[in-house]
Amino acid sequence: MTRLFNDPAAFADEALEGFAAAHRRWVRPVTGGVVRAAATPAGQVAVVIGGGSGHYPAFSGLVGRGLAHGAAVGNVFASPSAQQIRSVARAADGGAGVLLMYGNYAGDVLHFGQAAERLTADGVETVTYAVADDISSAAPGEAAKRRGIAGDLPVFKAAAVAAEQGLPLAQVASVARRAGERTRSFGIAFSGCTLPGADHPLFTVPEARMAVGLGIHGEPGIGEQSLPTADEAARLLVDTLLKELPVDVPAPGGQRAAVILNGLGSVKYEELFVVYRKVAALLEEAGVTVVDPEVGELVTSFDMAGVSLTLTWLDERLEELWRAPADTPAYRKGALGEPGPASEPAAPVRAAEETEQPAVPEASEASRQAATTVLAALAALAATVDAHEDELGRIDAVAGDGDHGIGMRRGSTAALRAARAAQERGAGAGTVLIHAADAWADRAGGTSGALWGTVLRAVGAALGDRDAPTAGRVAEGVAEASAAVRRLGGAEVGDKTMVDVLVPFADTLTAAVAAGAGLTGAWDRAAGAATEAAAATAALLPRKGRARPHAEKSLGTPDAGAHSLALITRAVHGALLDHPHDQY
Amino acid sequence: MTRLFNDPAAFADEALEGFAAAHRRWVRPVTGGVVRAAATPAGQVAVVIGGGSGHYPAFSGLVGRGLAHGAAVGNVFASPSAQQIRSVARAADGGAGVLLMYGNYAGDVLHFGQAAERLTADGVETVTYAVADDISSAAPGEAAKRRGIAGDLPVFKAAAVAAEQGLPLAQVASVARRAGERTRSFGIAFSGCTLPGADHPLFTVPEARMAVGLGIHGEPGIGEQSLPTADEAARLLVDTLLKELPVDVPAPGGQRAAVILNGLGSVKYEELFVVYRKVAALLEEAGVTVVDPEVGELVTSFDMAGVSLTLTWLDERLEELWRAPADTPAYRKGALGEPGPASEPAAPVRAAEETEQPAVPEASEASRQAATTVLAALAALAATVDAHEDELGRIDAVAGDGDHGIGMRRGSTAALRAARAAQERGAGAGTVLIHAADAWADRAGGTSGALWGTVLRAVGAALGDRDAPTAGRVAEGVAEASAAVRRLGGAEVGDKTMVDVLVPFADTLTAAVAAGAGLTGAWDRAAGAATEAAAATAALLPRKGRARPHAEKSLGTPDAGAHSLALITRAVHGALLDHPHDQY
């Protein structure tokens, strides 16, 4: 378990601060993460990686010569926000474009995708690549749905060395794809980690049992077995990976492979070496030559007890890139010579939203009055999230990565703060919601941060700052939010995500308002529909200990996202009851 | 807990094999451990380090350019044997002598000391240095009694760089002493590790509590407190170290220090960074400039949850040595340039005892017959140790490092095997015991290995191979063993070690034999005295949860060593009853 922290909500920020203080020779902090201590040489593509905290050395520990130019660092187990990623990428950019690389998780895909759009709008040519190496997380036919685990390292490294060799962005991205296609990982786990401030581990594995194919946040695996010997574990890992070879590697034998035996946190070095002894022997038997093996902790999950094996099937070019030297806080290899004199460090690029106060357009008296109700609703929302944080994390850990409670709390707290600041500056109801939306997305990161930012923004846009909000306007905004979340997340009703709750909520609200109900009454009915839908969704979901053939994670936090939405609709109803407005 | 292993007794050997397979670029295996892949340049002092397994990267992970020339690798938490150390040192020797370095534990002190004597006899100039950085383990006035923990690294490194600079042995040793005198560590712990194959952790700390000053094997600390915040933990570590400065650093302020914040295994990287953030701030406040800090896992104890802070107070020379580059499996720093072409690897130096069958002098028929009784006694000894292995480990963990059960089993099993081989080759009783003694000391390592080797050797020497052993001869041998153990371990009755049991056992045996009792009857009486003495010693010892002002570890395994000796005397009595011989 995680024992040493101050305020759990500040954990990721404080860890990043300590990390940067300990590694000044390699990195400097910027808004949203870190970049190399020396500026990216002009004309060199910048490789910017990122993901949630709790996985060190991924991601900040991999910034330095021969590896990434920068890392966007999210909260614990939560994707960095698009704003953070953009800020780090701007600081790392050497004028030749940016390759954004990350593990293939819904939240990261959303935020890195949005960041790429914003960077392109900023005039920075940007390409994204999501590493998807975990073969247990989707069938070979759906390889694009796979999670990224310890295969991050060889893929990041290949692209970064190609960038340092001066290749243009398109070719650097092509190297990343080639490395990604030839990288496969498979893992086993024995126990989960307990996040800072949490009471319970994210997941548990029964004593003397082993979860097979478990994700690095405890996402479901493909089965459970009794605890193996070290040799049996090695055989399972090797055999599984040798069964699924890249298309241009028809059968094992005669190939060369980069090998990573990765400890997740509590399977310690000597244990890893005992396993590696057999891994090396089995690969040799299969005719596979091991090149520069790595045995250690390269992608962790706090003190989770687990181990994964990664193979990158090398061709001549990939071998050159894998063997190239690197000098980062957590990964050093070969001889790079002394670093040149550090370039004049560029001033950290601060996100516009953080340095400038966002604009507050003029608002009508009626809209300003309605803003107090919006504020009360956001306060009720934040209070209910706060009260249910642990519960949401636990529910999420059943099928997701356990970050839902943390992310929702950070997001809702930041949203309330931003809303209050806007309201004090005279903002109308629409602007209060839009400021809250941006703060939520930026501070929470993760899938839920992106989606809740979208929800609040849609409702805010519908309300505007001119007229007193009517029940009809609110219903329109909610309907628009429902459509936007479906578009952004690519999910529909039945996919076991918050969409399962948002759609009936929006539909019931619209119908009730159309039938002449006031906002408070209509909201009450809609909240009832939301609660029912959440219960129905929960019943569809697997329970701990039941293995599923493949992870079904489309919107990142199924069940937990549905559950929190239902709780929130009920809490907001309470706020509406307390703040009756004639116009509703 | 340690989950991935095959045969627990083979764990350390298999880990070493896997480690060497993964790091061929840096190291090559030799009997007893590893040395650098390239031979030590002629005329360069070789720095050979070592200790028990379970502490990776200590010790094998620290072999390579800029650090050690070789590492002797003991069993789990047990000192390597003198034979192993000698073998590694012979392989690492470049003709300019060897500096043996290790943490200050009774078993290591015994075995490295014996190895130095043998190396000197071999014609290899040898000096030893024990790192003793843990200020919680003895008062400032008794600093030589302190344990070695994470301060190993800066002291090893300083000496190794001095050796690479071409200094002669005496000056390299003087650098080690200077670095050691200026290195201080202090640690805290939250939970212990479970050794491979064991059912229970070596020690536990109550939930939400913290042990202060705990050793890396769970040896007693100086107190217990409630779980601190990360900032409070940082303050405790820094304040404690700033209270005890080296004599030539009168007050903190204006100095420069190397800083290591070391995780013991399960306090993970982000937690360490949160703590380091405050450590750095507090040192800055105190006017101490931090030089090349290290935050990570440098000396572990499997997955023990703990953290220690080490400061090395630098002068200009020590700073140069600390900042020098290094390239080892687990510790890489700065730029060393590509390694030169590897020298022709010297053939591993195999210990004479392992490559040649030890000699079996001619024996009388009577002595050969008595050898069957000796064999039965050794079999009973091994069986009782086997049956009590876990119990002995647990008892040892109260006040020692928990290795007693493992060490005793490895030793007694090896002794029985060697005795059987000798007996099959026609050895007499004396030679059977002497072969058993050497096998025990070599295979078990640790304090108990050295002491039991001494015990069996003394009895074997008294019995000889010519005459039928008499009760008087046996009593003489046991009396000589009692004296030899006191000499070697520097302990007397009352120091709460096996001496507390061995002395009354030997005295009672001698008295009973002198009074005319046969061996079996006399042994019975002596075993009774041993059992009583062990119980009395146990009553003197602290129990878990009771903090002691300072660790009282003179012979390494008080209580457990006394307890196992009493058990063994009783088991041997059973063997004597089953194998009556007229002459006894």
Automatic annotation (TrEMBL), chains A, B:
Residues 330-367 are annotated as: Disordered. PROSITE patterns: DHAK, DHAL. Residues 7-331 form the DhaK domain. Residues 334-348 have a biased composition (Low complexity). Keywords: ATP-binding, Kinase, Nucleotide-binding, Transferase. GO terms for molecular function: kinase activity. The keyword Amino-acid biosynthesis does not apply. It holds the Pfam family Dak2. Residues 372-574 form the DhaL domain. The keyword Lyase does not apply. PANTHER family: TRIOKINASE/FMN CYCLASE, TRIOKINASE_FMN CYCLASE. This is Dihydroxyacetone kinase family protein. It comes from Streptomyces ziwulingensis. The lineage of its organism: Bacteria, Bacillati, Actinomycetota, Actinomycetes, Kitasatosporales.
